[in-house]
Write a structure and sequence with these properties.
about 110 residues, single chain, 4-stranded antiparallel sheet, mainly beta
Length: about 110
């Protein structure tokens, strides 16, 4: 099974940008859809973005459309989430997920107003 490790989280002011990375190892990364989820305090886990195995298809939650971009590099076994125009309501733990069933441990994103 694929192991996933996220990085790139941190503290940023509203309006700023961050790029999250998810590094995959130990499995067949390129055959699976990949997704980014987030979990905010007191809220249910939310699917933020998903991308097909070859990157031809992607989809986003309405709350992040036009601000976030998901991408992948299968040669490097990496998935990215570029987050622009960040808002305080984007504050959450962001988790990488493989359609094969693997989850990362998450990276904290905090957006200050």
């Amino acid at each position: 099974q694929v192991q996933l490790v996220e990085s790139g989280g941190g503290l940023v002011q509203a309006g700023g940008s961050l790029r999250l990375s998810c590094a995959a190892s130990g499995g067949t990364f390129s055959r699976y859809f990949m997704g980014w989820f987030r979990r905010a305090p007191g809220k249910e886990r939310e699917l933020v973005a998903t991308i097909s195995w070859n990157g031809d298809y992607s989809d986003y939650a309405d709350s992040v459309k036009g601000r976030f971009t998901i991408s992948r590099d299968n040669a490097k076994a990496l998935v990215y989430l570029q987050m622009n125009s960040l808002r305080p309501e984007d504050t959450a733990v962001y988790l990488c997920h493989s359609a094969g069933g693997s989850w990362g441990q998450g990276t904290q994103v905090t957006v200050s107003s």
